[in-house]
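ESCALATION

Customer reports they have been waiting on this structure for their group meeting. Please prioritize. Original submission:
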Amino acid sequence: MARRRLDLTFPPRQATQPITYHLVKDFDLTPNILRAQIQPGQEGRMLVEVVGPKEAIDAGVEFLHKEGVLVHPAASDICLEEETCVTCGLCTAVCKPRALALEAETMALVFDKDKCVYCEACVVACPRRAITLTF
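Update from on-call: job pushed to the front of the queue and completed.
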């Protein structure tokens, strides 16, 4: 079984369509909606974790694309306890998408949410446990 967290953006015309129903019924996936903001006639957003065979997840994502839903790997917010952080840079060393970086002049930790793929490597790497992820 595979597990993926997806950040979905629904165009206004799709906001009232049973998209998650089709993920369950047609692709035998188990969706877990972690966060959603969907209203008829407006663009909607949903953070969903899907569980199932990798091939079924891939087919479900392809279905979402065909339905006009934008699908991105889920990006979460990170919370940094500045009093605990010693800006050692270990989190930046394990951040493959480079969502975390130390600013050269100030040595402040900078987070680029658009690059984050929610891998949790930074949480594990932080020796002070100063980084947590929020949904």
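Sent to customer with the following note: The two ends are 23 Å apart (CA to CA).
Escalation resolved.
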